[in-house]
Design a protein that fits this description.
This protein has 12 helices and 14 strands. The chain has helices spanning about 5-10, 30-35, 40-45, 75-80, 115-125, 130-145, 185-195, 210-220, 245-260, 265-270, 280-295, 305-314, and strands at about 15, 20-25, 45-50, 55, 65, 85-90, 95-100, 105, 145-150, 170-175, 200, 205, 230, 240.
């Protein structure tokens, strides 16, 4: 059997058939919640295939510190190959771009159609001039690779981190269109981004040894107003660091959504989202503030709006 057949045989991988003979493969929600990570589910993340070949792709699935046995903090410190390179993790959605026979292919994790793929394409064209677009398309076709972006859209798709400017894209990596993950060199990716006047992922730290890792990690946990970092060691092993500020406000976003859904009692919300005395003022504020939107048939406020209103109130 081919690798595509293996993907199709895996019950934890979902195939979505698109136009022009293209299929996308992504791990299922069941795989995510049950932690079913094998050779297929790890690779099935923003993977697009046509005629048995990779048409466009993103990263393999990688994990946060303490999320998996291999990313337990004590294990990481001992098994990483130093130096480790740490890049700021932007807080948007994934955009994937490849080019074949002069035709660009814009996609998100699972499709090249729909609102998010269209928004990615629109933001790309708004931010990249025509001659620079053609230059990038040619690079992608010549190198047979995909450009992977973080798409920042504070207007239509606010997340946890606040961005105070118009929608834009950040080039994260140039990844070979192959079932085996391989990205092009960071310095080359940076050179392409500069030539196209595109923002690129920012190298924020280089960890030299085990002692340096512990110092860097503890400092990263306490940072605020960013999501965290994506780190890669010298043999290509990748993992994520998400700081306490981000994890807290992501949890509070779920609280807002739970209040808005009106499916859970106050007691059930407190239990499910581990709310305690330190959260009381914010939770009480949410209980007053969020239903106002529901009563007026308005869209549920995003967590950035809720946070700003709460902090300004105090």
């Amino acid at each position: 059997m081919s690798y595509v057949d293996d993907l199709r045989e895996n019950e934890y991988v979902r195939e979505k058939v698109l136009e022009n003979g293209i299929s996308s493969f992504n791990f299922t929600n069941k795989a995510f919640w049950k932690g079913i990570w094998d050779d297929q589910t790890i690779h099935a993340r923003g993977l697009f295939v046509k005629d048995g070949e990779v048409y466009a792709r993103s990263y393999d699935k990688f994990f946060a510190v303490d999320e998996r046995p291999e990313t337990k903090l004590n294990t990481l410190v001992e098994t990483l190959e130093y130096p480790v390179y740490c890049y700021r993790k932007e807080n948007g959605f994934l955009g994937i771009l490849s080019c074949h026979e002069g035709h660009p292919f814009f996609a998100t994790k699972s499709t090249n159609m729909g609102e998010f793929a269209e928004n990615f394409k629109r933001i790309f064209y708004e931010n990249v001039e025509e001659d620079k677009r053609e230059y990038l398309f040619n690079i992608l076709e010549t190198e047979n690779c995909s450009a992977v972006f973080e798409v920042i859209d504070p207007i239509n798709d606010p997340h946890i981190v606040e961005y105070n400017w118009n929608p834009y894209i950040v080039l994260l990596d140039l990844i070979k269109n192959d079932f085996t993950y391989q990205h092009l060199d960071y310095s080359y990716m940076k050179e392409i981004a500069v030539a196209c006047s595109i923002d690129y992922k920012s190298l924020k730290g280089i960890i030299l040894d085990k002692e340096d890792f512990n110092l860097w990690y503890n400092k990263a946990l306490e940072e605020k107003h960013i999501e965290g970092y994506v780190c890669e060691d010298s043999k290509g092993f990748m993992f994520k660091i998400k700081n306490n500020w981000y994890k807290y406000w992501k949890r509070m976003r779920s609280v807002v959504q739970a209040i808005a859904s009106e499916r859970l009692s106050i007691e059930d919300i407190e239990k499910r989202y581990r709310l305690n005395e330190n959260d009381k003022d914010l939770f009480d504020f949410m209980l007053d503030y969020v239903p106002e939107y529901i009563d007026k048939n308005l869209r549920v406020p995003d967590i950035i709006t809720v946070r700003k209103k709460f902090l300004n109130k105090n």
